[in-house]
Design brief:
Helix content is 27%, strand content 25%. Helix 4 packs across helix 5 (187-199). By secondary structure, the chain is α/β, with parallel strands linked by helices. It folds into two domains: 2-160 and 305-353, Quinone Oxidoreductase, Chain A, domain 1; 165-301, Rossmann fold. The strands form four sheets. Strands 3, 6, 7, 8, 9, 16 and 17 form a seven-stranded mixed sheet that branches. Strands 12-11-10-13-14-15 form a six-stranded parallel sheet, with helices on both faces. Strands 1-2 form a two-stranded antiparallel ribbon. The protein contains eleven helices and 17 strands. A hairpin with an 8-residue loop joins strand 1 and strand 2. It binds zinc ion (2 copies). Residues 102-103, 106, 108-109, 117-119 line the site of one zinc ion.
Length: 356
């Protein structure tokens, strides 16, 4: 089978012909669509920027090469191996793959938070081979969510972009008619806007530096948009307050995660405001510490989501509540070009690799 392989951190992916994996103890899935995610840029580059000259290296996270990236996978079950007849999934079924696999035995995994496994994370496309290939090995059928009512293109982005947006929105714990600010109207931001506008009564303000993305945000349900490119932080915070009777935001989801966006997100909070940090742009931020207690503010990180949340999200997608915005379809061989476009901020919504 064809696979785009990462042979060395910082290098380009290379097309390789490999033997397809066998189902073995797990399941073999034919990849119909694989989303290209910002995390893949970090994985390929080999590190996260922690700010102040510090790096979190993929090698130190236990990522070993060569490896096939790609964790947003929709496909068809080809072979169930030993699980055939013992699971609700059947060969030939259309599925979304839950890629955030953990060790299965630590206290986080046992509590349902495999995405935050404390012992040995085994996420597909990061710690083991993922979806930039014609086939992917999935260790157990419980990681397969049936998605019969969805096209593979709509289903693939649910596994990371959709799930991350959904879980971040859950962490906002929005009450009636609160103000939600979404920083970054890319793939995750637009999904969060759709979910928030259709499942909560929140008023939604979307921030971005690109008018095209903000236009898309409006069409998907944002009540107000602000282009932050030409405005000072104070002007942006004032504009947000204006949307909430002079108060700040009740919740902010930062899908960028840069020093500037996180500091802006914190500044924009009203009393008991929640700042949910999602983006992994990198760097180190500086917050006025007394304002945390004085505002009763909360800041929380959100990394992808749980298997249960993915099941819920696939249901929501099947009922039309959320439709990932697909902006382009590419062959496996074009993966490097797509990653570069994504890094330059040129992709609105999700770009997909179609191996066939
Ligand atoms: Zn991702
Ligand atoms: Zn674990």
């Amino acid at each position: 089978m064809k696979a785009m392989r990462l042979l060395e951190f910082g290098g380009r992916l290379e097309l390789r012909e490999l033997d397809p994996p066998s189902a073995g103890d797990g399941v073999l899935v034919k990849v119909v669509a694989a989303g290209v995610c910002h995390t893949d840029i970090h994985v390929v580059s080999g590190a996260y920027d922690l700010g102040n000259g510090n790096l979190l290296k993929m090698v130190d996270r236990g990522i070993h090469l060569p490896m096939t990236p790609g964790h947003e996978i929709a496909g068809e079950v080809v072979e169930l191996g030993a699980h055939n007849g013992k699971t609700t999934v059947q060969e030939g079924d259309r599925v979304v793959v839950f890629p955030w696999i953990g060790c299965g035995t630590c206290r986080k995994c046992l509590a349902g938070f495999e995405n935050l496994c404390e012992v040995k994370p085994a996420s597909l496309g990061i710690f083991q081979d993922g979806g930039y290939a014609e086939y992917v090995y999935v260790p157990h059928p419980r990681y397969l969510i049936p998605a019969a009512g969805l096209r593979a293109e709509e289903a693939a982005p649910l596994g990371c972009s959709g799930l991350t947006a959904y879980s971040a929105l859950n962490k906002c714990r929005l009450d009636t008619e609160e103000l939600l600010v979404i920083i970054g109207a890319g793939g995750l931001g637009t999904t969060a806007i759709q979910l928030a506008s259709r499942t909560t009564s929140a008023r939604i303000v979307a921030l971005d530096i690109d008018d095209g993305k903000l236009k898309l945000a409006s069409s998907l349900g944002a009540d107000q948009t602000i282009n932050t490119k030409v405005l000072s932080k104070k002007d942006v915070v004032d504009a947000i307050k204006k949307e909430n009777k002079g108060r700040g935001a009740d919740a902010v989801i930062d899908f960028v995660g840069s020093p500037a966006t996180s500091e802006l997100g914190f500044e924009a909070l009203t009393k008991q405001g929640r700042l949910v940090l999602v983006g992994l742009f990198g760097g180190a931020a500086s917050f006025p510490l007394p304002l945390f207690p004085l505002r009763g503010a909360q800041a929380t990180g959100s990394f992808t989501g749980t298997l249960t949340e993915l099941s819920e999200l696939v249901q929501l997608a099947a009922s039309g509540v959320v439709r990932p915005v697909v902006s382009g379809r590419y062959s496996l061989e074009e993966a490097n070009d797509v990653l570069e476009k994504l890094a330059r901020g040129e992709i609105a919504g999700r770009a997909l690799l179609r191996p066939y």
